[in-house]
Design goal:
Strand content: under 5%
Strand order of the largest sheet: 6-7-8
Shape: globular
Order of helices and strands: HEEEHHEEHHEHHEEHHHHEHHHHHH
Length: 439
Amino acid sequence: MTMTEPQPSAASYWAMAEQQSAFVQSHYYDPSAGLYRPWSPMKSDANPYDFMWGNGVQFSSLVGAIRYDPDTYLPILTAFSGGLRKYWDESAAIPGFDAYWASPGHSDKYYDDNAWLVIGFAEAYGVTRDETYLDWSKRTQAQVLSGWDAVLGGGIYWHESHKSKNTCSNAPAATGALCLYRWTKDESYLDWAVKIRNWVRAHLQDTDGLYWDNVDLDGAINRTKWTYNTALMIRTEVLLYEFTGDKQYLAEARKSADAGIKLWVDPATGAIANTARFNHLFAESLLRLDDVTGDSRYLNVVRAHAAFGARYVRDPKGGYGNSWERGVNGPEAPRELIENAAAARLLWLLAPYPDSDELMAAALLATRQGDEAAAESLLRDAVAGDAEAVEARYRLWEVLVRRGKALEADGLAARLGAAADGSPAVRDRLLALGWKGAG
């Protein structure tokens, strides 16, 4: 059989991110206001612009975009930052962002909404070095930390109505404090992060390392486990490890991540559970863990999740549906900004990494250069990063045969054969590659 070198996929992560951000801009953005609409097409009963939760996700998406295309997206981020001022309640005792500017008496502030902006503003400062963003991050963090009191031994409330203390308000508050510590070296932010982290672990962590949703003022715990709650605690642990060198934080991050992968990742498809508004944050936490460990298993979970989304959640005409499941997003269904901004953020996070096609191309080049060990490693990542990477699996089987790894090669051959038996398209693809069957 003659080996040919495939070209990297035209839809690399960077290209996919560009396409998705362009979709968001064309379908949701109102340049006259510097704000984004919540639906496409708009629902008749919807507010004209999105709530702060969706705004926070879109802000993070734009910050991700300006790392790679500042000419296009920095002016948009600047305009959006101006538009968000409409949500800022300067008249409050401790100013902060309301959920919507039309909230009665400006009394509808969520501490988690503000915490997401703290992280986004700090990241924007890190990319642009514009002191305005750092100042906004500090001011918004002051509002977040004002939600802490001694009830239940500490913790930050979810909403200013003070009915529950949630992981989704505390975990991003700790991450935000560490993002500010990175740029200011103000030890008070580090102290806050440790204090918040310790409270969440004591009150809202299960024994498996994952986190429950909230505790009310009577001490009753809502034991729902959302991906984003654990995600922000992982990011907090990773940052604490980076800043202190204390390996207990890294061990805790890995424990939570491994438990989350076991619970939320479908091993057959690679999809992460929950909707995109949550799961992009779990994906980001895994990438940050990959940064400090070099364990590509975490990166490959995110690759596989993105591959599933591109294949089954994205409409060929553009945009992502609201459910990260196969066959449930009809082409005529309205699409929310928050879901599409989350998908764009996910893809921008992956932009510096090769996708499965690019890994396979690099592996074939390594084979031609006589480095079969490197080829095998690259192909393992390509296979782990896409549950339906048929050619990568076939190429890996070839390398295993050549390297004399007969037992593993036979096992992979059996799986390829089963896939071929279950799908005429897979069988045709394998036969075109020169597949002779498992026998």
